[in-house]
Design a protein that fits this description.
- Helix content is about 30%, strand content about 15%.
- The chain is of the alpha/beta class.
- It folds into two domains: about 35 residues; about 300 residues, TIM Barrel.
- The strands form two sheets. The protein has a nine-stranded parallel beta sheet. Strands 1-2 form a two-stranded antiparallel ribbon.
- Strand 3, helix 2 and strand 4 form a beta-alpha-beta unit.
Length: about 350
């Protein structure tokens, strides 16, 4: 009897140490506290890019998307970002055909510390390269290049200059976002966009074989999302990208796009935690934003996203842009509460 009791007690101790228990005569290993079910249970395949032996989101990285002003060292100290997405404009390094400003790209990317990865978002706006005259008013959007050969050579030059610092490359932005006839993120057809995405990929990889090419971020609040994702699924790219603001069903919405090609990875190059415009005053909205930071990144990590990049870094001094809703810092570079919460997530389980 004593021997049997000791054997049973020993088994119970082993189960307790392993996190298992006996429920209704059945071995049970659930702890009841996990955010999501184990994606690698028998009968289920690991998600794209996941190591079956790793916790979901173990390699997740947090990023910041900038417009024209890169983060200062003080901002980086608060945020501790692992990725920075920045703009590089073709007309910036080649203002005239064949005339190269060799300092333009280095002056931008060399401001980023070596321990932070860079996503270079390449823009093809108004200018000689698209045949659309430049205008002085604020305008959005990219245009199809006039000549694919010239475009390819320009992208090869860009990749040669960037390859010692840049990890991710992206052509254009939100091509499916066209709210009206005068504001279009992509001023061309979907066929043209698909073609130049392929040219971009081939040119970049020829100079930087290890580059990670990201499809232009798709806007998720538009009816065209499904059509564009389905049409672009066979493009040449390494990662899907979708822009998500104040989303509730993150995993489900990501999978709406990811389903079209699971061989690609997934990143989020623009996001913010909550729809702050639903609040009556800015201060309440800012606190709500801060309260949501951890949960937003946690959900992206659980979805299998490689990194998610917050937009926007700094509040614009032009209130008509409306970007102050999401800013981590005000116009004087003073941090909002969300900036501190962003920094705290550097020590969260999903970044280890």
């Amino acid at each position: 009897m004593l021997r049997d009791f000791l054997i049973i007690a020993a088994i119970g101790l082993m189960l307790t140490m392993s996190g298992c228990s006996i429920k209704d005569g059945v071995l049970d290993s659930s702890d009841g506290d996990s955010y999501m079910d184990d994606p690698n249970e028998p009968g289920e395949e690991p998600g794209p890019g996941e190591d079956p032996g790793e916790e979901p989101g173990a390699n997740f990285k947090r990023g910041v998307t900038t417009m024209y002003q890169l983060p200062t060292s003080e901002m980086n100290e608060i945020l501790k970002p692992e990725v920075i997405r920045l703009n590089i404009d073709w007309r910036g390094w080649e203002p005239e055909p064949g005339v190269i400003d060799s300092s333009y790209i280095p002056d931008i990317i060399n401001q980023i510390p070596d321990d932070i990865e860079i996503l270079a978002q390449v823009r093809c706006r108004r200018g000689w390269m698209t045949g659309h005259p430049e205008i002085t008013t604020w305008t959005r959007g990219d245009f199809p290049p006039l000549d694919s050969t010239t475009f390819a050579e320009a992208m090869k030059y860009m990749a040669r200059v960037c390859r010692h610092k840049v990890v991710y490359y992206q052509f254009s932005n939100e091509p499916n976002w066209n709210p009206n006839d005068t504001i279009n993120a992509w001023n061309g057809t979907i066929e043209e966009f698909k073609y130049f995405t392929d040219v971009f990929y081939t040119a970049v990889k020829s100079e930087h074989p290890d580059a990670k090419c990201v499809l232009a971020g798709l806007a998720c609040d538009v009816e065209t999302l499904d059509y564009w994702a389905n049409t672009l699924k066979d493009c040449r790219f390494d990662y899907w990208d979708m822009h998500m603001y104040g989303r509730k069903e993150i995993v489900e919405e990501i999978n709406m796009v990811w389903q079209y090609n699971r061989d690609k990875g997934f990143v989020i190059t623009e996001c913010a935690a909550t729809k702050v415009w639903l609040y009556n005053d800015l201060e309440t909205a800012k606190q709500a934003q801060a309260d949501s930071v951890y949960y937003l990144f946690r959900d992206f990590a659980d979805a299998g996203v490689e990194f998610a990049s917050w937009f926007l870094l700094r509040e614009s001094d032009n209130p008509t842009h409306g970007f102050h809703f999401y800013a981590l810092f005000d116009v004087n570079e003073n941090p909002y509460p969300a900036a501190y919460e962003f920094g705290k997530t550097a020590d969260s389980v999903f970044t280890r």
